[in-house]
Amino acid sequence: MNTEGFTLIELVCVIAILAILTAVAVPSYQALRDRSAREVAAANARTEYTFGKSQYTMVEAGLMDEEETEASSYDPETDTATWEGEINGRVYIGIYDGRTGEGSAHAQ
């Protein structure tokens, strides 16, 4: 009797275990990827806020002419900034609120 190698039952069990692990891991990976993209969008909104507020402050202080500023989504009335862009094939919108110091983002 030859005892080398694996039996068919052992191979089927291994394939079944791999299928179960894959079924559990793929949704977790997708959720992690989406959460990371939302964090990137929120961080980009904060960068946009910092950039826009810096320009606004320099214009208000007379250190810069308004014509010299670059386009920004910073809104001095609400002290917020937004960022919109594509990450991993989906469009995300990030919002940063300077009053609370918190950013958030969601996919469209």
From TrEMBL:
Keyword terms, alphabetized: Membrane, Transmembrane, Transmembrane helix
Gene3D superfamilies: Glycoprotein, Type 4 Pilin (3.30.700.10)
Naturally occurring in which organism (per UniProt): Candidatus Enterocloster faecavium
Pfam families: N_methyl (PF07963)
Protein name, as recorded: Type II secretion system GspH family protein
Top-level lineage group: Bacteria
Lineage of source species: Bacteria, Bacillati, Bacillota, Clostridia, Lachnospirales
Membrane-spanning intervals of the chain: 6-26
InterPro entries registered for this protein in UniProt: N_methyl_site (IPR012902), Pilin-like (IPR045584)
